[in-house]
Amino acid sequence: MWRKEDSKPQGAADPSPAPVASASVTPIAAAPKTPAPLAANAPAATSARGGASISQGIKIKGEVTGSEDLYVDGHVEGKLNLSNGTLTIGPNGVVKADVDAREVTVSGRVEGNITGRDKVHLLSTGQVSGEVRTERLAIEDGATLRGKVESGKVPSKLAEVRAAAAAAVAGKAAAGSSSAAD
Q1: CA 65, CA 80: separation in Å to the nearest integer?
Q2: Which of 16, 36, 80, 107 is the most buried (most CB within 10 A)?
């Protein structure tokens, strides 16, 4: 039977690399594995699901979309759309964009329209200039909000269609009864 060792010529060197003596190699100190906190007073923006962050020195122009949580402590211009995520704007964050997310927490500055499907929370250092649409709105003392606010449960499209149809039927019935009386 053929074996691999039999196929090597007897004087051939082993092609595997020689082990390096560990005494001659000085290891470099490893950086700590835990990330540094984003800001001293930043809320826990990243949950067990994970999340992304735009730190203080970063500027983004354009459209940011995703479905995870996002912490913004830098500058963003354009559109921010988090289909199922939470957006947290840190104390150094400046957002000049239309924002759409499940939950929005503002402790920085936002110029643009905010749509928070579940909740919008303005912390004491938060400044918002623009329209806010949400089911629940929380504003802490010291926060600034300039613009239009639509808060509460948003009626579903089906309910709107039914209400419009009922109004149209009622309008036709009233018009029909007045012409019959003539």
Answers
A1: 6
A2: 80
Nearest C-alpha neighbor of 79 from the set 118, 110, 55:
110
Would you state the pLDDT for residue 168? 72
- Report field, pTM of the whole predicted structure over 0.90: no
Task: Name the nearest CA neighbour of 128 among 102, 147, 142.
Answer: 147
Closest of 181, 45, 51, 46 to residue 123, by C-alpha: 45
pLDDT digits (tens, 9 = 90+) for 11-54: 555 554 444 444 444 444 444 444 444 444 444 444 445 689 99
Q: Is 4 helix (H, G, I), strand (E, B) or coil?
A: helix
Q: Which amino acid is at 68?
A: E
For the four alpha carbons of 120, 124, 128 and 131, in that order, the dihedral sign comes to: positive
DSSP string, 103-169: EEEESSEEES-EEEEEEEEE-TT-EEES-EEEEEEEE-TT-EEES-EEESPPPPHHHHHHHHHHHHH
CB 12 within 8 A of CB 47: no
DSSP 22: G
φ and ψ at 61, to 5 degrees?
A: -120, 125
Could you tell me if 20 and 40 are in contact, meaning their C-beta atoms sit under 8 angstroms apart?
no
Output the six-digit token pair for 161: 């269609």
Distance CA 70, CA 82 (A): 8
Q: Among candidates 86, 94, 85, 87, which has minimal Cα distance to 129?
A: 94
